[in-house]
Amino acid sequence: MNMFKRFFTALTVVSTLLSTTLSCQKDTSGPEPTIEIDLPENTGMSYGQTANIPIPSSLSTRKDITLSLGFEQTDNVEISGGVKLRDQLSKAVTVDEKEQTIVINSSTLYPNGARSTTNDNKIPDSYTVTLFAKTGTGETVGKNDFNFTVSEGTIGISGADVSNEIPFAYALYSDNITTYKLETLDVPTQGTTWHLSHSPGESNSVAIENSTIQFSADAGDPHKNSEYTYDLRPVLLKDGFPVASTSFRVVFIPQVKFFFGMYYPDMDLTINLNLLHIALGNGYLSAEPMIYPENYKSSFSLQSVSLDDATFDNSAAIFSVNPQTGAITVKKDDTLKAGSYKIILKAVTTTGHEFQTDLTLVMSPL
User: Fold this and answer.
1) Is residue 95 classed as helix, strand or coil in its secondary structure?
2) Ordered structural domains, the chain, with CATH
3) pTM for the full predicted model
4) Given a cut of 70, is residue 62 above it in pLDDT?
């Protein structure tokens, strides 16, 4: 009996040791250790640009790891026609295994915060994507989220002055259409359409056609006598969402009158006094030229002087102009010859427009 007890006790001990050994061996083949994935917190780009995020070395050196992307952290906004935002994300964000980068093609997406003009849906303030690292058995051994933002692209306007915060241009009233070409610069235009925001009641006078802002001949003041300002916003739309836009201010102004003489606006009467007879060799100071409307007066410069249709050498500055008033001065000079001296004067207005006029002084001996 004692022998049986001793045998049973020994058998129990051996069983326990064997169980412990097997248990220890099983523990050593536990789950794969978690891999640290270090990615930039946020990446920014303009619509149309492509960004490349390097895959961290903790993953790029592991040949037994498969990388994939998840888009569940981004709101699945409806774009149009049954297309959802995550559908676009899966096309825009991909893993380039050869270059070991995450590629983001923003032209497949939409600027963050953009609101649709068709269904009023809003793109989230940022895009969030999850990078997964998995073993060959499908076990996830690492993951991390990264964010990126897409801002609106830039639109240029040919002929606009960009020295102020809002690009602007001055246009002279005329009987022809006035045009400004829109330049999309680096913004891709495939699948896009133009939209023009303007004040109510202006749709008949301004529109966008073939990437060009066009003002009709009757734009602005119907009488073409006073200034009229258009505050516009040309917008490039894709699937109803704005992907690029700019503000643009156009000020229509009356045709500027520039000549030597007098103008009576109430009667629209012009009196030209651009041909004068003066004594040869005497000094002379002309009247100021007429600029109308006067508030556009800015600066004047002398362009040329000719004598009887031949170029006159004015290196001695016998003829000069007051840059503030436009009045022309002739120095007293006994070397001057009798004849017709034609002076070409240029005016630059406050709007940046340039105009030329002439004054002919016929000099003869007393």
Assistant:
1) strand
2) 42-151 (2.60.40.10), 156-253 (2.60.40.10), 257-364 (2.60.40.2710)
3) 0.76
4) yes
